[in-house]
Design goal:
By secondary structure, the protein is of the alpha/beta class. It folds into 2 domains: about 200 residues, Formyl transferase, N-terminal domain (Rossmann fold, 3-Layer(aba) Sandwich), CATH 3.40.50.170; about 90 residues, Methionyl-tRNA Fmet Formyltransferase, Chain A, domain 2, CATH 3.10.25.10. It contains 8 helices and 14 strands. The chain is elongated. The termini are far apart.
Length: about 300
């Protein structure tokens, strides 16, 4: 089976690796986003998918979009059997979706039709969901609205944050995608339409949503820290400096006589609506993340200060 792989982020990598290792499949091209210029040194930044493809001598194609007919023609002329699209980052027009023998297939880490869109994992964590699913869908022109091919339930551990959950669901998705490819090859695929009437949608995370509001309760802030770790990161402002919280714990105590946002002790415990947030890993601007005891070695705590 001749496969075009389309992906950019780490989430797509386990599937690409498994397909590459399987001798039943031939990756004839890897589509990934154009390398970008990043950092103070203006170095070229290559996506994880680009790096894997380059290391393994796979054909790499990096169109900026598919608005030009030439980009669409190049895709179709590859004469692939199937395209696998995971965390790619570009909108695919109808001509691309229909440009292979069997179509385009995608991994989506939610219990579709719930949490369609770009941030299903983050939104699931923010909403304190304790279970979800990983789905393989045959893509159509809608937003994650294609028919479901395979699905596996996934339980969201409240102690795990986004990077761990993303890794676990990506590995489940990789296993399901290999299963899907084998089913297609053996003409055993079954397509199950989604119930569009109960669909819910996520949006791209806005940076403003990552600032901690100390008027919120412990669980909401804790889940905010979990959801944004490894991505945009939850943060607060201390003396005009942005400080990220990468990991934290919390204690519920509604009888504390402090103001919301107040630093209440030398360990940097912070009062919120119904208890306290206990930072475990913090990061100042331009510096590396530190465990709380290391962080406090070089940081002056002003007990009683109200954070914004």
């Amino acid at each position: 089976m001749k496969i075009i792989f389309m992906g950019t982020s780490d989430f797509a990598l386990p599937t690409l690796q498994k397909i590459y290792q399987n001798k039943e499949f031939e990756i004839i091209a890897v589509y990934t986003k154009t390398p970008s210029i990043a950092g103070r040194g203006h170095k070229i930044s290559y996506s994880p998918i680009y790096q894997f493809a380059q290391k393994n001598n796979l054909k790499i194609i990096t169109p900026k979009n598919f608005k030009e007919k030439s980009a669409i023609d190049d895709f179709i002329n590859l004469q692939a059997d199937i395209a696998i699209v995971i965390s790619y980052g570009l909108i695919l027009p109808r001509e691309i979706l229909n440009g292979t023998k069997f179509g385009c297939y995608n991994i989506h880490p939610s219990a579709l039709p719930l949490y369609r869109g770009p941030s299903p994992l983050q939104e699931s964590i923010l909403n304190n969901e304790n279970e979800s699913s990983v789905c393989i869908i045959k893509m159509d022109e809608g937003i994650d609205s294609g028919d479901i091919v395979n699905q596996q339930q996934y339980f969201i551990n409240s102690k795990k944050d986004y990077p761990i959950i993303a890794q676990e669901t990506s590995e489940i998705g990789a296993k399901l995608m290999i299963q899907t490819l084998n089913q297609i090859a053996n003409n055993q695929i079954i397509l199950t339409p989604q119930n569009h009437k109960i669909a819910t949608f996520t949006k791209k995370i806005d940076k403003s949503a990552t600032q901690i509001n100390w008027q919120n309760n412990c669980l909401k802030i804790y889940n905010q820290i979990r959801a944004f770790n490894g991505n945009l990161f939850a943060f607060f402002i201390h003396d005009n400096e942005k400080i990220k919280i990468l990991k934290a714990d919390y204690q519920i105590d509604e009888n504390l006589n402090f103001k919301n946002g107040e630093i209440i002790d030398k360990n940097f415990a912070i009062k919120c609506y119904d208890g306290i947030i206990l930072p475990k890993i913090l990061q100042r601007e331009g510096r590396k993340p530190l465990l709380i005891n290391e962080f406090l070695n070089g940081f002056k705590i002003n007990i009683g200060k109200i954070l914004s």
